[in-house]
Design goal:
- The structure holds 2 protein chains of 2 kinds.
- By secondary structure, chain A is α/β, with parallel strands linked by helices.
- Chain A has 10 helices and 8 strands.
- Chain A folds into 2 domains: about 130 residues, no CATH class; about 120 residues, no CATH class.
- Chain B has 2 domains: about 200 residues, no CATH class; about 130 residues, no CATH class.
- In chain B, a hairpin with a 2-residue loop joins strand 2 and strand 3.
- In chain B, helix 6 crosses helix 9.
- Classes of the chains: A alpha/beta, B alpha/beta.
């Protein structure tokens, strides 16, 4: 039985047995090479489920939005599972109300080529799941450090590189909306009183938005790359997020989304944390 | 009006001439797509791609536009923003030009005229470029357009291979190419052949005429909840859309000096419908999704007499959740006809 057949079979069983109210997975899009999140509630619809390299959306982002319905089964790649861990840590999800259907992932495609984030993915298999659908995939040889070029730059050049990326931003907030970490009822950028960030795409407004967003990702971003893939303007948002994730790892020895029992890196204090930046 | 022939060399000279007396915008390669950018020479352009990343709407209705400047200490002394330059926009696809014709109705066709839009529009000449190879996301002909449509344009160019057939549609357009030689019957035949081929390449069909009547009574239908589930309520579809025209007005003040600025807004944002009281009538994500679909195929039919989707396919291409407006329409039809 192929992985897809197994997935459909399990989805049918879970729904028919009323173990879950919904299976959150992917189905094929209308056009070749596309897939879209699927919200299956009837066993007979489970045959539309697919899983392959078109399935780039991080489904964890949808869990806070559908959790009120009841127990949900969710198809989770390595990155999705790490986002679920982050959400569990932050008390946004109840583990008992989830059935995690793990899938090994060989990386997702973006316009026909491997997504940048997938090229450097260290966790292609789910870090937490209730059952695997299909086999685990082989760990990938890690590609060259994607930050190497960026870190070689002088501070002004780094700023320039980031400024060039965000100059294309149209403030549609697709990056925020596809991100499992962005579940705040009111985002700082939407606050009007006081207004923290200007609404224009000119001057420093775009940079303020992206820097503040990157800071909010510290110790939480699992580097799934959904923001970069989702950006209609092709902004490499992972430039920000990778750098922040690396800094958190260097400073606090913490990698996001691996252990639900570990406190969030920036919400915990340890006397052994490096303190020299404060002096 | 007399159809003419413009060789690539002539177009190069024309562009250089236009650039001397005003701004010229055309598709320019950026990363692996094209965007409208200011040019001074034809060599900077890439006229071969099907659609620019963003539509041409931003050249008439900019993402951020200063309405006036002020000093907080002198509220009686507002200073008007600078008048816009004259501009020629080269390489506008027919779908985008049709989108501008729809924007014209919103901004100046309903009794009131939006000064900021209209003064740009009056100073703008739109030079279209026939579409020979539509993308798989294109469906202009399903919503009343055509890959070689002329609506909204001043002049339509059709690439006949190193030379362009130039069809003037307005006096402004005719003036741009008045010194060029007349086109021959074989040039016109070649264009007709290319137009037929492009038309045939678009296979997407959606029936938007019946849809309007069905949507009129579809407000509370549970199909909206189902259709909207994948939607993350970002504004990508609305910002890349050639006809979306909502804006927000904000005062930006620093150290006592400020400007009143209008910026693109999106009905997909929860702040869009937020009342001053805190009440939000469109808080549910499904209600926001419904609004955009209703707006495209129902509300604007009531307001300006036509659907406000021109079939450019940008929302399909850029949706981070893979939502396809053609599929949305198809599923709506199925659900509402019952």
């Amino acid at each position: 039985m192929s992985r897809e057949e197994q997935l459909r079979k399990r989805a049918k069983e879970l729904l028919a047995g009323k173990e879950v109210v919904m299976v959150l997975g992917y189905r094929a899009g209308r056009r070749p090479g596309t897939a879209t999140p699927a919200f299956i509630t009837r066993p007979e619809d489970a045959d539309s489920l697919v899983f392959d390299d078109r399935c780039g959306a991080n489904l964890a982002a949808y869990l806070p939005r559908v959790k009120h319905l009841g127990k949900i089964a969710v198809v989770a790649k390595g990155c999705d599972s790490r986002s679920i861990v982050t959400l569990l840590k932050e008390k946004q999800l109840d583990r008992n109300q989830l059935v995690i259907l793990g899938v090994g992932c060989d990386g997702v495609k973006e316009q026909g080529r491997l997504s940048d984030s997938c090229a450097t993915c260290a966790y292609p298999n789910p870090v937490v799941c209730d059952e695997m659908v299909g086999d685990k995939v082989a760990e990938r040889e890690s590609a060259a450090d994607p930050l190497a070029e960026f870190e070689k730059l002088a501070p002004e050049e780094r700023w320039q590189a980031l400024a060039e990326e965000v100059s294309r931003c149209i403030r549609c907030y697709a990056c925020r909306q596809v991100c499992p970490n962005c579940y705040c009822p009111t985002c700082f950028v939407d606050a009007g009183s006081p207004q923290w960030v200007g609404k224009t795409t000119a001057g420093s407004d775009n940079m303020m938005f992206h820097l503040m967003r990157a800071m909010h990702m510290a110790g939480r971003c699992v580097e799934c790359g959904a923001c970069s893939r989702g950006c209609p303007m092709g902004i490499d948002l992972m430039k920000f997020n990778r750098k922040v994730a690396k800094t958190v790892k260097d400073r606090f020895g913490a990698v996001a989304g691996l252990n639900p029992d570990e406190p969030p890196a920036l919400a915990a204090f340890d006397p052994n944390d490096k303190q020299e930046f404060i002096r | 009006m007399t159809q003419r022939i413009v060789t690539a060399a002539d177009l190069d000279k024309l562009v250089a001439g236009w650039a001397k007396s005003g701004a010229v915008y055309a598709p320019v390669e950026v990363k692996d797509w094209t965007e409208f950018r200011r040019i001074v020479s034809l060599a900077e352009t890439d006229l071969t791609r099907v659609n620019t990343k963003l539509s041409a709407r931003g050249l008439l209705f900019p993402h951020c536009e200063t309405m006036f400047r002020f000093e907080a200490s002198r509220p009686d002394k507002a200073q008007e923003a600078d008048e816009p330059e004259t501009q020629v926009v080269l390489g506008v696809r027919s779908c985008d030009a049709a989108g501008i014709a729809v924007l014209d109705k919103f901004f100046s066709g309903q009794g009131e005229t939006d000064t900021y839009y209209q003064r740009r529009r009056d100073r703008t000449t739109l030079v279209g470029l026939s579409c020979h190879a539509p993308a798989d996301t294109c469906f202009c002909s399903a919503v009343g357009g055509s890959p070689t449509g002329t609506r909204g344009l001043d002049l339509l160019l059709t690439d006949l291979g190193g030379r362009y057939l130039a069809e003037p549609l307005t006096d402004k357009g005719a003036a741009l190419v008045k010194d060029m030689p007349e086109a021959s019957a074989s040039d016109l035949a070649k264009k007709a052949e290319l137009a037929d081929r492009a038309e045939a390449a678009i296979t997407e069909r959606i029936d938007t005429r019946k849809l309007k009547g069905l949507l009129d009574t579809a407000d509370g239908n549970p199909i909206w909840e189902e259709l909207s589930l994948p939607c993350v309520n970002c504004g990508a579809c609305t910002f890349v859309c050639p006809t979306c025209h909502c804006f927000d007005i904000t005062d930006e003040t620093r150290k006592g000096k400020g400007a009143r600025i209008r910026v693109w807004d999106t009905c997909q944002s929860c702040t869009y419908s937020q009342h001053a009281s805190g009440h939000n009538p469109r808080l549910a994500p499904s209600a926001r999704f419904r609004n955009r679909t209703m707006d495209k195929f129902r509300y604007t039919v009531d307001q300006v007499g036509e659907v406000s989707c021109v079939g450019c396919g940008r929302c399909i291409r850029e949706c981070p959740a893979g939502i396809d407006i053609c599929e949305t329409v198809e599923r709506l039809m199925l659900a509402l006809v019952k």
